[in-house]
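WARN retry 2 of 3 for item q-0093 after timeout on previous attempt; input resubmitted unchanged.
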Amino acid sequence: MGNDGGSIPRRNEMVREKKKGEQADRKTQLATMNYFCALSKQPLHEPVVADGMGRLFNREAVLEYLLDPKAFGDGTRICGHIKSIKDVKTLNLRPNPEFSKSDSKKSAMLTYDEQPSAPFICPITRKEMNGNIPFEFIWSCGCVVSAQARKEMPDSA
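OK item q-0093 returned
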């Protein structure tokens, strides 16, 4: 075992530390937020609504939650702050012409490095809404643009 003067042990050989818990991959989380409804976990499809926190929902899922809050197991934890349909805003999303319906079914079965085409794009920069680039929406009109396009727009717009 040593420790007789012939070896010099390091700290990591002598002290056992707790193993760190597993953490979800940030890239996967961001992609999931832009491809799937936060409430129903189904792929996003028009009409899409967002709450004040920026979470994306299918409008049907929110209506179903408002009618029966127990319809979704974790519904009160995810959107307990939504009390009426006025608490969400319908988004004006630009569909991605390169996106196909088969991509939405494949997106759940992709490996780590694969990235499907996103269902929506920024109307100004034409960048895909896939989680790699931050997107923002304007509450007054529901327009969705990339953060880069928002920074490039003049303040008066």
